[in-house]
Amino acid sequence: MIEPEGPDDRANLIIATYAAALGEWMREHGPSVMRDQLHLDADSPMCEFWRAGYLHALEDLVTLIRDRPTRDVVNTPVESKLLH
Questions:
Q1: Pairwise CA distance, residues 31 & 25, whole Å
Q2: Which residue of 2, 73, 74, 81 shows the fewest CB atoms closer than 10 Å?
């Protein structure tokens, strides 16, 4: 594993790792969500759910970047990377 040299490298590694895990999960469990893009209708409940999920994801990233050692993120199985 390549160790990040600074805080920006560490943050980039954490974000890339979690994005890859979520992308894998979405391809397996929700391919129609990505295809149909129903969350783009600004007046729909799907848009509200999408924004709530996005907010929680950003809050999770802030916590991860602040609190977790990089090696824990990189060496954790994919299914454990998705915060519940």
A1: 9
A2: 2
* Tokens matching residue 5: 């040299």
Lowest mean pLDDT among 4-13, 17-26, 33-42, 71-80: 71-80
pLDDT for 55: 92
DSSP state, 81? Answer: H
Residue 42: both structure tokens together: 């600004």
List the chain domain ranges. 7-74
pTM above 0.85, yes or no: no
Per-residue burial over 39-70, b if 16 or more Cβ lie within 10 Å, else e, is: beeeeeeeeeebeeeeeeeeeebeebbeeeeb
Helices (H), the chain: 7-29, 31-36, 45-67, 70-74, 78-81
